[in-house]
Write a structure and sequence with these properties.
Blueprint: H1 3-37, H2 39-52, H3 54-71
Helix pairs in contact: 1-2, 2-3
Length: 72
């Protein structure tokens, strides 16, 4: 693969990653606003998620704990 082709692929991947991050940021903002507007419903949804997918919830909790541990 030539160097120009390789650089083009890296730029494309970088742009795709940036677009994905932007979409994720926008979606998370909407979720946070929805949760702030209806905290009871957000709690119910979180409880339902924990019952339906306990392993994912445990991994999420570990991830949040890890990040908070790194921050402090």
């Amino acid at each position: 693969m030539s160097e120009q082709t390789s650089n083009g692929v890296h730029q494309d991947l970088g742009e795709q990653a940036q677009q994905a991050a932007s979409k994720l940021y926008d979606a998370s903002g909407r979720v946070i606003n929805d949760m702030a507007a209806n905290p009871e419903q957000a709690g119910d949804q979180l409880a339902r998620f924990a019952r339906e997918q306990p392993i994912a919830m445990a991994l999420l909790a570990l991830g949040v704990g890890y990040i908070l541990g790194k921050i402090t």
